[in-house]
Design a protein that fits this description.
The structure is a single chain. Strand 7 (97-99) and strand 8 form a beta hairpin. This protein has 2 helices and 19 strands. Strands 5, 6, 9, 10, 14 and 17 form a 6-stranded antiparallel beta sheet that branches. Helix 1 (2-27) runs antiparallel to helix 2 (197-233). It has 236 residues and is α+β, with helices and mostly antiparallel strands. The longest helix has 37 residues, at 197-233. The protein folds into 2 domains: 2-36 and 48-53 and 196-233, no CATH class; 64-191, no CATH class. Helix content is 27%, strand content 31%. This is Flagellar basal-body rod protein FlgG. Residues 187-229 form the Flagellar basal-body/hook protein C-terminal domain. Keywords: Bacterial flagellum, Cell projection, Cilium, Flagellum. It is found in: Bacterial flagellum basal body.
Length: 236
């Protein structure tokens, strides 16, 4: 009985973790380029009721939405925009960019977007957004003048990417980035989060039902133990 109680306690904790993951996915429905998280439960041994929770990120592409803003960019297929954070280089699928007062291309959070030559700077007299052209292979032009090429990188194993906050990913120093084999950048588009609200709500309801079901089982067992202890106590 002790094993059953322990198993049910772990199951309840697992359901709480699952609930948090789903709630976070739903909270990021409107976050550009957001990649939803999934929770898996692995049985450690064939005859062991204990299980280990593991979270993974689903890198499936989100839908592309046209904005007609020249500084909005979306990647179709594999690859990540490279940005400079205060802690080093990071990667993102969120292409909702802006220009700062010095003409540096930045994320909405203020991180510099990197090109093959470093920070991308767009300066021109009476600069207008329609003067900026970004091709499918990431080349940036100001009028007819070539400025730089977006540094868009890819990885063999996406499980090595770790969420860092502010909608960016980081990798360990030992992980090598590589060029995207078939790069396709869309100017004037943004990638939506790959979260399906209907699916997430169904999962959330199912998790809550399972939690309540386990909770009832725990109460039943607790009641059984109490009655058993009372009955045994009559003979002593």
């Amino acid at each position: 009985m002790k094993l059953n109680m322990t198993s049910m306690k772990q199951a309840m904790l697992g359901q709480l973790q699952q609930n948090e993951v789903i709630a976070n996915n739903l909270a990021n429905i409107n976050t550009r380029g957001y990649k939803k998280d999934l929770m898996f439960f692995e049985v450690l041994k064939d005859n062991d009721t204990n299980s280990k929770a593991r979270m993974a990120t689903d890198f499936e592409q989100g839908a592309l939405t046209q904005t007609n803003n020249p500084l909005d960019l979306a990647i179709s297929g594999r690859g990540f925009f490279t940005v400079q954070t205060k802690d080093g280089v990071a990667y993102t699928r969120d292409g909702h960019f802006k220009l700062d007062g010095n003409g540096v291309l930045r994320t909405q959070q203020g991180m510099a977007v990197l090109g093959e030559g470093g920070e991308i700077v767009l300066i021109g007299e009476d600069l207008k957004p329609e003067q900026i052209t970004i091709t499918h292979n990431g080349e940036i032009y100001l009028g007819d003048v070539f400025i730089d090429r977006l540094l868009i990188q890819d990885f063999e194993d996406y499980s090595q990417l770790q969420k860092k906050g502010e909608n960016v990913f980081v990798v360990d120093d030992s992980v090598q980035a590589k060029e995207v084999e078939e790069l396709e950048v869309h100017q004037g588009f943004l990638e939506e989060a790959n979260v399906n609200p209907a699916e997430e709500m169904i999962q959330l309801i199912e998790v809550q039902r399972q939690f309540e079901s386990i909770q009832r089982m725990v109460r039943t067992l607790d009641e059984t133990f109490r009655k058993a202890a009372t009955e045994v106590g009559k003979y002593f």
